[in-house]
């Protein structure tokens, strides 16, 4: 009962009203909603693209400075604290609890999305540059958002030992007493809304692929209804795990990682395209290394930057209100340098392997003439349908589809386990580090997270609409993120 008295009801009720209000509007007025979303996104793309680009560079450079300056030697905890998790367990949790099932969807389909872009076509080697930009959008800048905030949150939890586990609390070095007032409340509301937008985007983009996969395996043709059922299944799994606690999250992460690696190994070893995949991967990594600075600062790109780079930075930003907090919470006893460098190794290793294997596999099918994936997209098939057709070119493809489905369900569950735990902590006025949120509040957020994705699926929102939700939510979030980093540097000078 004491915990319920500590709940900050304004941070619970206001998001509920907004989520159900938005869901109603999307279902009741889909065309008008689309026009409004398109208008806001167009304004942000045309007027503020430079801001998103500069923020990405700021975070990437900040991680390098934090790791290799005196700040990097700061231990996240007391001098006697030791790491709670082994390097392997920590790394697996870093990846599976931050990468949702959309990594599989994009790894299979993103090269197809880029192949029709004029900016990519003008470079000549379309396949090579499509994979290169995938690695860029899931690469160092993207992970810098997570890692820089992760050390800031861990510093707040284990060095300064702030009493509140909230997004706003990380702004205290700048806001001071105003953190306890309206400013702090507004920041926490921004965080909750951003996270709801992030979960909606993730579910809405990649759930059709999971539905198509399960549909093929069990000969079910009602994809939309199946998507809604699968959302409920995923919510049930992560609800159970989040209620049990961190032990369940750790074990689920390990199981999920096994299925994910199993999928990659099956494609790599049995697709007959081993040499093509390795060659394409080496070429793309080399291309990214040589052109990284130019890619990170490009704005004039026939709208490619606005359509994709701005979207991806926004997508990672809206997830930054939860996943870095989770990374920070499992990093006690490590140094800042260790968290950043090991985080890059595990994060980039997992994302690069996924894209190199799955994207190169799809491209090999296109190049060898086994399937004309680009033509299927032109003919009106959606990306999930084409991804399934690509998988069906594998020997004993049902094994691959089972691995894909299990990996996606596992990745969904582990990510939502971690964010449900984090957002539940945000709901309290005050919660000690060693305390966990009540099971009821965790269950409440688990259910709320599925409302907006269902509305987007029911209203048949297109990819642009779904992306727009993330881009709009990212703008206020990135401002708060900058405040957190600046506050961290100000505070850490006392311990460096």
Overall description:
The chain is built from 22 helices and no strands. The chain is mainly α and 496 residues long. The chain is globular and about 65 Å long. The model has no long low-confidence stretch (mean pLDDT 86).
- Counted up, domains total 1
The CATH class designation is Mainly Alpha
Strand percent estimate: under 5%
- Straight-line distance between termini: 41 Å
Describe the global form: globular
Low-confidence stretches: none
CATH topology: Sodium/glucose cotransporter
Q: Radius of gyration from the CA trace?
A: 22 Å
What labels describe this entry?
496 residues; mainly alpha; Sodium/glucose cotransporter
SSE inventory with pairings:
Layout: H1 2-5, H2 10-28, H3 30-68, H4 87-96, H5 102-115, H6 118-121, H7 126-137, H8 140-158, H9 172-175, H10 182-218, H11 223-244, H12 246-270, H13 274-297, H14 304-319, H15 323-329, H16 336-367, H17 373-378, H18 383-391, H19 397-426, H20 439-448, H21 451-458, H22 463-492
Helix pairs in contact: 2-3, 2-10, 2-21, 3-8, 3-14, 3-16, 3-22, 4-12, 4-16, 5-7, 5-10, 5-16, 5-18, 7-13, 7-16, 8-14, 8-15, 8-16, 8-22, 10-11, 10-14, 10-18, 10-19, 10-21, 10-22, 11-19, 11-20, 12-19, 13-16, 14-22, 19-20
Short account of what is shown:
Helices cover 77% and strands 0% of the residues. By secondary structure, the chain is mainly alpha-helical.
């Amino acid at each position: 009962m004491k915990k319920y008295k500590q709940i900050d009801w304004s941070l619970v009720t206001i998001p509920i009203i907004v989520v159900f209000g938005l869901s109603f509007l999307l279902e009741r007025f889909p065309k008008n909603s689309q026009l409004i979303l398109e208008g806001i996104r167009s304004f942000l793309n045309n007027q503020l693209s430079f801001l998103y680009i500069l923020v990405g560079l700021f975070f990437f450079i900040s991680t390098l400075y934090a790791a290799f300056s005196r700040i990097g030697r700061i231990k996240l905890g007391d001098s006697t604290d030791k790491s709670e998790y082994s390097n392997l367990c920590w790394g697996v949790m870093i990846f599976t609890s931050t990468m949702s099932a959309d990594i599989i969807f994009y790894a299979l389909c993103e090269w197809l999305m880029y192949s029709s872009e004029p900016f990519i076509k003008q470079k000549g080697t379309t396949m090579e540059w499509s994979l290169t930009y995938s690695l860029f959008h899931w690469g160092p800048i993207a992970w810098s958002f997570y890692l820089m905030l992760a050390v800031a949150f861990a510093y707040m939890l284990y060095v300064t030992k702030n009493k509140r586990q909230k997004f706003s609390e990380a702004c205290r070095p700048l806001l001071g007493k105003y953190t306890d007032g309206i400013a702090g409340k507004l920041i926490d509301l921004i965080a909750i809304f951003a996270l709801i937008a992030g979960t909606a985007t993730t579910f809405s983009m990649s759930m059709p692929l999971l539905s198509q996969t399960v549909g093929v395996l069990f000969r079910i043709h009602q994809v939309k209804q199946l998507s809604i059922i699968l959302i409920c299944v995923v919510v049930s799994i992560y609800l159970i795990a989040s209620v049990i606690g961190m032990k369940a999250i750790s074990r689920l992460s390990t199981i999920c990682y096994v299925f994910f690696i199993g999928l990659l190994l099956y494609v790599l070893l049995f697709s007959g395209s081993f040499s093509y995949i390795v060659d394409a991967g080496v070429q793309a990594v080399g291309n990214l290394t040589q052109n990284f600075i130019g890619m990170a600062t490009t704005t004039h790109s026939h709208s490619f930057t606005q359509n994709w780079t701005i979207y991806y930075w926004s997508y990672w930003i809206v997830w930054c209100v939860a996943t870095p907090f989770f990374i920070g919470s499992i990093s006690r006893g490590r140094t800042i340098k260790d968290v950043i460098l090991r985080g890059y190794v595990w994060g980039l290793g997992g994302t690069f392997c996924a894209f190199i294997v799955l994207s190169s596999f799809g491209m090999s099918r296109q190049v060898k003439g086994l399937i004309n994936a680009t033509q299927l997209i032109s003919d009106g098939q959606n990306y999930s349908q084409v991804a399934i057709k690509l998988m069906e070119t594998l020997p004993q493809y049902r094994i691959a589809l089972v691995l894909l489905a299990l990996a996606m369900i596992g990745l969904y569950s582990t990510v939502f386990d971690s964010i449900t735990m984090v957002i539940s902590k945000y709901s309290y006025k005050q919660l000690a580090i060693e305390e966990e949120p009540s099971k009821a509040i965790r269950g409440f957020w688990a259910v709320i997270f599925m409302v907006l994705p269902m509305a987007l699926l029911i209203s048949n929102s297109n990819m642009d609409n779904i992306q727009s939700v993330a881009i709009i939510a990212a703008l206020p979030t990135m401002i708060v993120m900058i405040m957190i980093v600046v506050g961290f540097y100000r505070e850490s000078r006392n311990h460096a």
